[in-house]
Amino acid sequence: MCANSTTIREILLAAEELGMVDSGEYVFFSIELSSSDNDSKEPWRIDDDTDERNEKARKAYQALLTVTARTPDNLEYLNFSREVKSLAQRKYNFTFGNSSVSTFVTAFYDAVLLYALALKEILPEEPGEVNRLEGGNMTRRMWGKSFKDFFNGSEEICIILFIIAAALTMYN
């Protein structure tokens, strides 16, 4: 499932009512595109709901596996996050408040950087030949590249960066 936390909760409550949670025959997967700190400890709990429904939801959540992006805690990410927040405030009058910068922002930044590295490699070869920018050629230039990324602070490029970079080159 890929939905907001309220919808996920309602789906799981319906599954619990249908006996799908206790049967052991079903497992539920959720993809969390952005995590919020207040939902992570007790995502099944809604303060305005009854204790009985909250307990049913808690039980239903035992059959749920949630996949989410890890928020990095390295110095590079923290500095990048501060810079994004500062730029958003200064140029667009947008404040994040207590929210953290989405990991998708850093993934997109890394993908654009990877694309730029491939572009830098291709352009000096034949500056006037546009066909050299064809998507397959660009993607091949990205294979095997590595740089220090914000996701994990290592020399490995996350698979998501390759997917994003490949998507960027598909429609040249």
From TrEMBL:
<dbReference type="GO" id="GO:0016941">
    <property type="term" value="F:natriuretic peptide receptor activity"/>
</dbReference>
<dbReference type="GO" id="GO:0007165">
    <property type="term" value="P:signal transduction"/>
</dbReference>
<dbReference type="GO" id="GO:0017046">
    <property type="term" value="F:peptide hormone binding"/>
</dbReference>
<dbReference type="GO" id="GO:0016020">
    <property type="term" value="C:membrane"/>
</dbReference>
<dbReference type="InterPro" id="IPR052612">
    <property type="entry name" value="ANP_Clearance_Receptor"/>
</dbReference>
<keyword id="KW-1133">Transmembrane helix</keyword>
<feature type="domain" description="Receptor ligand binding region">
    <location>
        <begin position="1"/>
        <end position="150"/>
    </location>
</feature>
<keyword id="KW-0812">Transmembrane</keyword>
<dbReference type="InterPro" id="IPR001828">
    <property type="entry name" value="ANF_lig-bd_rcpt"/>
</dbReference>
<dbReference type="InterPro" id="IPR028082">
    <property type="entry name" value="Peripla_BP_I"/>
</dbReference>
<keyword id="KW-0675">Receptor</keyword>
<keyword id="KW-0472">Membrane</keyword>
<protein>
    <submittedName>
        <fullName>Atrial natriuretic peptide receptor a</fullName>
    </submittedName>
</protein>
<dbReference type="Pfam" id="PF01094">
    <property type="entry name" value="ANF_receptor"/>
</dbReference>
<feature type="transmembrane region" description="Helical">
    <location>
        <begin position="150"/>
        <end position="171"/>
    </location>
</feature>
